[in-house]
Amino acid sequence: MRSLLCLFLCTLVIPSVLRAEDPPEPNYVFWAELVRIVDGNTVSMNLDLGFGVWVHKQNLTLFDADKNGPDEEAKVKNMQRVAKMRELLQDSTDIVVKTVRDKDAAPPRYFATIWADGVNVNDEVNKAAP
Q1: I need a surface site. Which of 31, 68, 106, 117 has the fewest CB within 10 A?
Q2: Is 99 a member of any domain?
Q3: End-to-end CA distance of the chain
Q4: pLDDT band per the 50, 70, 90 thresholds, residue 59
Q5: Residue 3 lies in a domain
Q6: Which domain holds residue 51?
Q7: Interatomic CA distance for residues 82 and 66, integer angstroms
Q8: What is the per-residue pLDDT for 123?
Q9: Per-residue pLDDT for 43 more than 90?
Q10: Rounded to whole angstroms, how far apart are CA atoms 17 and 9?
Q11: Is residue 60 predicted with pLDDT exceeding 80?
Q12: For 78-127, what is the HEC assignment?
């Protein structure tokens, strides 16, 4: 009787344990090299995808970047952001990039959070030109 009860409980419990969890979210974190700073919100980088595969000259928009109009104040702010990015990225040895794809954009557009030598570039640029 005990073995029958044990077998019955095992058939109820084991399938729930063996069920697959939800698939994990992709984790797109790459080593990178700076190619150039396009503007205060955009950089062009070479991304190391691993296994000897590289993407060259990929434009990345800073995640949570401000989009300002063409007025004079926005131009000054853009120049401050470019100067801060140049200061942080120009001589960095370890650049790590986490990307997110904008699914609504017609040509693919990627948002990035960038760390240069352990410093979050996005936060520092936003502090320099709020």
Answers
A1: 106
A2: yes
A3: 73
A4: very high
A5: no
A6: 26-128
A7: 13
A8: 94
A9: yes
A10: 13
A11: yes
A12: HHHHHHHHHHHHCCCCCEEEEEEEECCCCCCEEEEEEEECCEEHHHHHHH
